[in-house]
Amino acid sequence: MPNPTDAEARTGPATAPGKGLRGGSVGLLAAVTLGLSSVAPAYSIAVTLGFVTLTVGDLAPAALLLGFVPILLTAFAFRELNREMPDCGTTFVWTTRAFGPLTGWLTGGWVVQVATFIAMTALSQVGATYLLQLLGLRALADSGLAVTITAVALLAAVTSIAYRGLHLAASVQYVLLGLQLTALLGFGAAAFARHGAATPSLAWLNPFAFDGFGPFAEAVMLCLFIYWGWDALITANEETRDGGRVAGQAAVISTLVLLGTYLFTAFAAISFAGTGTGGTGLGNPDNAADILSTLASPVLGPVLAKVMQLAVCVSAVSALLTCLVGSSRGTLSMAAHGALPTAFARIHPRHRTPGFGTLFVGATAACLLVLLTLVSADFLGDAILCIGLLIACYYGTTALACVWYFRGRLRNSLRDLLLRGVLPLLGGLTMLAAFARSAHDMYDPAYGSTSFHGIGGVFLLGAGSIATGALALAVARTRYHRFFRDGRTTVAELTITED
């Protein structure tokens, strides 16, 4: 079969036609801000660092560093693919061009959207809980009904902001991200300055000190979650100035900023609290679910501890906003290329945003939150845990898509061989290995809070999401004939011919 990139290598990168979005409204700083905000750094490190420390002790910084490696390798793949095909559909378009419409629709479309919807339920719930606590309404914060109502209200608020345009969303994110980074850096500086804080050790970064492969793999999988989300900034490539270049740069910059922020916070927390199993120690299981709330008061004092609480709250809300922006643009691209109903391709005439798609994403996340809450609080928690499986699936597929798409050009230069071949290949294989390891661990009924006939509920939710996607794919093939018939060439042009 001829290499589909041969002609493109002669004619230059493929550029998707405009979809009606407001081009040039976002610069490099705004793109980096959107990428960092979508990860929710304050929330992510708060709910992950304790569990990583429980697994590997004071080697948590080493786990953070090793967990970053496949993320960085994948970021190079995203950057190279975005330079070639700057389309707001990102993984959907790239995996379709590389592997065909079946893989593109399922892993580049469905899996990404499901992971985002589940993440939005978690983020809205966390944001609502922290907001009620900040307002002094602790009784309501302990009420599932009150938290759910507040979470739905937050979803409505951020949907309204996303509906009005990316420029407004980016402006709001400057403030929210600034508060998060200031709070984390302030916490770290205060922790290091406290009397009795231990001197940081480079041994905490030793990648060869893990006690076996099991703890190492589990810790790295946990760390994979806290870096996830930066790719949402690339969905704004058609609204970014010089989006083919700037969006890719922003992806790499945002991941490096995340690494620095997380390592600084982890070193500070371990220096101050240690890894003991009692009191404020990071090895205390009672502290694992939210380590920053535990340490904020002894490190910062009761007044400034409220600022840290606020930072985690706005971290969840800002990530929620970016999820809306990215997910609605993903469905816009799928519809524009004839893989979803045409309603998702409608652009608001004044705001120049995917109006229907934005409202659909917000409403779907709210319905999913209510449904999972009604089923069981444990069920919602297991749904959140299964996100790691979905992340590894589509990140790994996208990285391998980079290698396959550019396979005919890898001999052109050393740069192409490394950045389009070797590094993405390593990243993709690592992600798929993480997927396999994660699926194996999740199958255990003791993993998470639920199980069914001896099979872990987390595994059933993760694998079930992908299996449901396969069924949805079968239905989509009967509706969107041109997309599935024409294969890779379909996403090289806009279609919008089927509803």
From TrEMBL:
UniProt keyword annotations, A-Z: Cell membrane, Membrane, Transmembrane, Transmembrane helix
Parts of the chain that traverse the membrane: 28-53, 59-78, 99-123, 143-162, 174-193, 213-230, 251-273, 307-325, 356-377, 383-405, 417-435, 455-476
InterPro entries: AA/rel_permease1 (IPR002293), APC_superfamily (IPR050367)
Main location (coarse class): membrane
Mode of membrane association: Multi-pass membrane protein
Gene Ontology molecular function: transmembrane transporter activity
A Pfam family: AA_permease_2
Cellular localisation: Cell membrane
Cellular component, GO, one term: plasma membrane
PANTHER family xref list: AMINO ACID PERMEASE, AMINO ACID TRANSPORTER-RELATED
Entry protein name: Amino acid permease
Organism, as annotated: Streptomyces boluensis
Record lineage: Bacteria, Bacillati, Actinomycetota, Actinomycetes, Kitasatosporales
